[in-house]
């Protein structure tokens, strides 16, 4: 029971950590896209959201979401809203907040220079903490003015059968595991927690045995088997290889020893 509770707490913590955040949106060429890059509010403090009751919600740590517009090669801020707008009607008055910068319902984001990423459209890939969209754009800005536009069309997205079907992963593991090593522990059963990271090729990039923390021979054998997987996810987002982590529970038991020992 204690072992089960430990695993349950781990899985809950992973779920909380990986909650998708409410993202800022940007209107570009009559299309609604998402801002992957946080450009800030130009050091303006809006007291409207300091007392916002849900500003610590797991999907809205900032307590607000912003709306932007790309027009005539410039990035404008057009709205700052609570995460639950329009239900609670909490919305900033840009004319008051950006008095000297406000013009015709919008504010030039002149406080930001650098690279920003925006995306949208159909979801091409989704894991517990990553969404990749079919439309991806990289913009280079100088004080809010767009100086370079890069459309990204060639993300490498490869999904393995082992991440789509945990039964396939377990079957591979059980068929390649040296069961004598487990049998020598004298245990009736054991739940192993394995963290597997992806990399830039279609193989596991790194394996970490979360538990057990001792039993070096057993840990080494688990790592050997996982690293020998013939296929694994390889994912790019905005043309950059992503390190994605999976945590899998694998059960070892005397019953499995009888079923898989050769």
Number of domains: 2
C-alpha Rg (nearest Å) = 24 Å
The H/E string reads HEEEEHEEEEEEHHHEEHEEEH
Q: Give the averaged pLDDT, no decimals.
A: 83
Broad structural category:
alpha+beta
Gap between N and C termini: 31 Å
Which term fits the overall shape? Answer: elongated
Strand runs, count: 15
Determine the number of helices (DSSP H or I, runs of at least 4 residues). Answer: 7
How much beta, percentage-wise?
A: 35-45%
Describe the largest sheet.
9 strands, mixed
Descriptive overview:
The chain has 262 residues and is an alpha+beta fold. It has 2 domains: 12-153, no CATH class; 158-260. 23% of the residues lie in helices and 37% in strands. The strands form 3 sheets. Strands 5-6-4-3-1-2-7-8-9 form a 9-stranded mixed sheet. The chain has a 3-stranded antiparallel sheet with strand order 10-13-14, with no helix packed on it. Strands 12-11-15 form a 3-stranded antiparallel sheet. Strand 1 and strand 2 (31-35) form a beta hairpin. It is elongated, with a radius of gyration of 24 Å.
Topology at a glance:
Blueprint: H1 2-17, E1 25-28, E2 31-35, E3 65-71, E4 74-81, H2 94-97, E5 102-103, E6 106-108, E7 114-127, E8 130-142, E9 145-152, E10 157-158, H3 161-164, H4 166-176, H5 179-183, E11 189-197, E12 206-211, H6 216-227, E13 234-237, E14 240-241, E15 245-253, H7 254-260
Parallel strand pairs: 1-3
Antiparallel strand pairs: 1-2, 2-7, 3-4, 4-6, 5-6, 7-8, 8-9, 10-13, 11-12, 11-15, 13-14
Write a concise synopsis of the structure shown.
With 262 residues, the chain is an alpha+beta fold. It contains seven helices and 15 strands.
């Amino acid at each position: 029971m204690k072992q089960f509770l430990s695993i349950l707490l781990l899985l809950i913590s992973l779920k909380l950590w990986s909650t998708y955040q409410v993202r800022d949106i940007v209107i570009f060429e009559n299309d609604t896209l998402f801002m992957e890059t946080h450009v800030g509010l130009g050091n303006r403090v809006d007291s409207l959201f300091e007392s916002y009751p849900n500003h610590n919600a797991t999907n809205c740590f900032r307590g607000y979401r912003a709306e932007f517009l790309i027009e005539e090669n410039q990035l404008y801020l057009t709205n700052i809203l609570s995460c639950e707008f329009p239900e609670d009607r909490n919305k900033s008055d840009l004319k008051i907040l950006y008095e000297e910068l406000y013009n015709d319902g919008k504010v030039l984001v002149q406080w930001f220079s650098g690279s920003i990423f925006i995306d949208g459209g159909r979801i091409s890939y989704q894991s517990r903490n990553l969404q990749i969209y079919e439309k991806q754009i990289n913009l280079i800005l100088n004080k809010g003015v767009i100086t370079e536009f890069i459309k990204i069309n060639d993300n490498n997205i490869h999904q393995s059968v082992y991440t789509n079907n945990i039964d396939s992963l377990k079957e591979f593991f059980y068929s390649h595991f040296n069961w004598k090593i487990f049998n020598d522990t004298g245990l009736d059963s054991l739940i192993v927690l394995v963290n597997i990271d992806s990399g830039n090729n279609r193989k596991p990039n790194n394996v970490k045995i979360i538990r057990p923390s001792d039993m070096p021979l057993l840990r080494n054998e688990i790592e050997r088997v996982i690293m020998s997987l013939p296929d694994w996810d390889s994912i790019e987002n905005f043309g950059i290889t992503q390190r994605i982590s999976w945590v899998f529970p694998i059960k070892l038991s005397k019953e499995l020893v009888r079923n898989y020992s050769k």
